[in-house]
């Protein structure tokens, strides 16, 4: 049996905090305990928010925690043509269409609809895309693209689901409502998700499933905030013919007010805790992961 493969996949758009420490340490400890491999992947496709100093801080903070990972580190920004290829393939398969509305226009359409009835929201609380762009003719799409209009490339969720049928994933951890074991995927809750944009050839959902498959990741261990994203990941794995890893979502580290930590809160940033004299073992205790 080949060894299990774990990965920690942060985005360099801020400094790592205690929540990241929990994820990274869990992955590393599981790899150690099972004779598995530990990978680090830098998810830096959002060039407007990612910065080299944040990436360097990731390496410094993880090394300080005593975590070791394989080289080379995969940086998503170096593989954009690969993601673009997948988008083109889904487009050829008739599963992706360009949608031209701005966020404000979508909000206006949704507000109008909400005058008469409630409008569905995705698990992150955003209103589902009303699907207007799905009905544009090929001519209209081409005319808008030729005129230089910005657009998002959206997955035709109904069509994708009709082709793939119901799927599930193996959850070795727990979802926010205690979901565990064989969890049914419900990608329809997300509506026509964005998989790429005019100027960005990919999205979190698309690159994460492509990279997990390409890197042979067998176990995805990450925070519960990404539990429902797995709905979309399972669907994309089937559409692209990729293998499915096992998932383990862990509870988030919360602040005193019971809120999810944010990359902008300095008090829980690993580099600030380190500068304040905290030891890596204390971090382990704080995030509930015993040493060794
Ligand atoms: N890059 C994502 C984040 O920083 C995590 C991706 C994943 O673990 O699937 O939240």
From TrEMBL:
The question of whether Aminoacyl-tRNA synthetase is a record keyword is answered with yes
Task: Return the Basic and acidic residues bias intervals.
Answer: 114-124
MF terms per GO, please? ATP binding; glutamate-tRNA ligase activity
**Which PROSITE patterns has this protein been placed in?**
AA_TRNA_LIGASE_I
Keyword 4Fe-4S assigned: no
A GO cellular component entry from the record: cytosol
Keywords from the UniProt entry:
Aminoacyl-tRNA synthetase, ATP-binding, Ligase, Metal-binding, Nucleotide-binding, Protein biosynthesis, Zinc
Question: Which residue ranges does the record annotate as region Disordered?
Answer: 114-137
One Gene Ontology term of the biological-process aspect is: glutamyl-tRNA aminoacylation
SUPFAM superfamilies from the UniProt entry? Nucleotidylyl transferase
Q: Give the family per the record.
A: Belongs to the class-I aminoacyl-tRNA synthetase family.
Q: What is this protein called?
A: Glutamyl/glutaminyl-tRNA synthetase class Ib catalytic domain-containing protein
